[in-house]
């Protein structure tokens, strides 16, 4: 017994991070997000696109296949704790050597040997190996379900963000078209003044050069529109031609009030964190399985059947064979295989814990970043409104002075450039606000609850978990 293989002091060393370390307060509450959070944008077309993506996107089918595979692993683990029955039948035509252990009259003859046998075996799980394997499979299956929910949440967020990107490109294109129209009107005025001898060809060339610049901007935005439409089509698994007439224009979302400090309940609202936590649970059980491999295996076996030389007398009373008994196996010297396996499982557990810790840190950072961005965007929008009003007023004054012959055309161009820049800034800030709002909704969990995964699990899985 002193020479038996021993697990020694091999164990995992990683520890799960405490919520307080990343700034999550136990007494604070994270704001609620509705499960269909994208409907807050008030766009029925967007709602239809998200629904179509969630129904047809291939990545979700891959996630569903992984859940099904994890469910099969549960059934496989459960089967190891139950009796197994087998039925075997074989027949062999063989010539027996004259110079071997088989004596005459069989030696030197060719005979047919046959067996027909039924057997039953049952591994007695004295040390909890099968139970730990089942719990590991349950944890992996729950992690797969949480991963599938995270994939759905990410897909919905990507559809919304692509939709916002398309709306941004159209808003900027409207500004560019207005710039082209404005510069065309200004060029007409310059030509009139040149014909009247009030301006020179310098002002005329300046006015003519402004038109190609505006057309280049429109062409660039047309490219962005095409790319955004292609991305949206890919996410919703349909041809880009189906979205040819789509021109979105979104309104800002009324976000829930955010507390001064996020609550620890955020960890239970993120499917990616839940999946990481379930992987830690599964890895813990895998370590337990690796430890039980150092303990004896106890099996009960029984068989009954027929065995005979010649098929003619196979089913006879004298050909019967019956046996039953226990079997025990204990590892003694295995050249370190079991210890290496335990070290590997412990390392897997350390990796799972650190992955969970990384997911928690990233989740808190994402929410903090998006809140900071929204606050900054709100301040920028307030200042931009004032700046745009001043630029519009300056442009009108410059144009009036130019028409009255009191100013130069260069002043008009500069004033017009400031107006167009402010209009582009307004569209950019609105698109950034919408995009950041969508990211915040996803970072807050998108209305997901851990109970949703448990409720979706098969009845047999929940019974085994209980």
Automatic annotation (TrEMBL):
Coiled coil ranges: 211-238
The UniProt record lists the keyword Lipoprotein: yes
Membrane topology of the entry: Lipid-anchor
Pfam families: OEP (PF02321)
Localization: Cell membrane; Membrane
Key words, A-Z: Coiled coil, Lipoprotein, Membrane, Palmitate, Signal, Transmembrane, Transmembrane beta strand
Tagged with keyword GTP-binding: no
NCBIfam families the UniProt entry points to: outer_NodT
Family note: Belongs to the outer membrane factor (OMF) (TC 1.B.17) family.
Name of the protein this chain belongs to: Efflux transporter outer membrane subunit
Organism: Aquincola tertiaricarbonis
Lineage of source species: Bacteria, Pseudomonadati, Pseudomonadota, Betaproteobacteria, Burkholderiales
């Amino acid at each position: 017994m002193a020479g038996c293989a021993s697990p020694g002091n091999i164990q995992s060393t990683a520890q799960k991070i405490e919520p307080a370390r990343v700034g999550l307060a136990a007494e604070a509450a994270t704001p609620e997000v509705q499960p269909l959070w994208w409907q807050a944008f008030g766009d029925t077309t967007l709602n239809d696109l998200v629904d179509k993506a969630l129904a047809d996107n291939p990545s979700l089918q891959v996630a569903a296949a992984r859940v099904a595979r994890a469910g099969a692993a549960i059934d496989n683990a459960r089967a190891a704790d139950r009796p197994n029955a087998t039925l075997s039948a074989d027949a062999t035509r063989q010539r027996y050597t004259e110079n071997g252990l088989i004596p005459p009259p069989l030696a030197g003859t060719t005979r047919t040997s046959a067996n027909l046998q039924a057997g039953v075996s049952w591994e007695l799980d004295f040390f909890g190996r099968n139970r730990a394997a089942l719990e590991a499979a349950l944890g992996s299956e729950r992690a797969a379900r949480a991963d599938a929910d995270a994939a759905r949440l990410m897909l919905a967020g990507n559809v919304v963000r692509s939709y916002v990107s398309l709306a941004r490109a159209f808003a900027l294109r409207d500004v560019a078209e207005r710039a082209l129209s404005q510069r065309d009107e200004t060029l007409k005025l310059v030509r009139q003044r040149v014909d009247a001898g009030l301006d020179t060809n310098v002002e005329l060339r300046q006015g003519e050069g402004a038109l190609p610049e505006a057309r280049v901007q429109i062409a660039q935005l047309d490219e962005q529109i095409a790319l955004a439409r292609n991305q949206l089509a890919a996410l919703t698994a349909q041809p880009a031609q189906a979205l040819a007439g789509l021109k979105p224009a979104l309104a800002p979302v009324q976000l829930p009030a955010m507390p001064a400090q996020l609550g620890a309940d955020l960890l239970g609202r993120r499917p990616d964190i839940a999946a990481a936590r379930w992987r830690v649970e599964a890895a813990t059980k895998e370590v337990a399985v690796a430890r039980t491999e150092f303990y004896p295996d106890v099996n009960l076996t029984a068989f009954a059947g027929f065995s005979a030389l010649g098929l003619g007398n196979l089913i006879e009373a004298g050909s019967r064979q019956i046996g039953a008994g226990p079997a025990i196996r204990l590892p003694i010297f295995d050249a370190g295989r079991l210890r290496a396996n335990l070290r590997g499982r412990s390392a897997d557990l350390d990796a799972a814990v650190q992955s969970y810790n990384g997911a928690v840190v990233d989740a808190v950072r994402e929410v903090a970043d998006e809140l900071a961005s929204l606050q900054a965007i709100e301040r920028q929008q307030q200042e931009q409104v004032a700046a745009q009003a001043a630029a519009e007023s300056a442009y009108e004054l410059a144009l009036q002075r130019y028409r009255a012959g009191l100013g130069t055309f260069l002043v008009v161009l500069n004033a017009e450039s400031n107006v167009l820049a402010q209009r582009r800034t307004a569209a950019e800030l609105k698109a950034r606000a919408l995009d950041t709002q969508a990211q915040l909704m996803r970072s807050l969990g998108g209305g997901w609850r851990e109970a949703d995964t448990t409720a979706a699990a098969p009845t047999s899985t929940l019974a085994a978990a209980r």
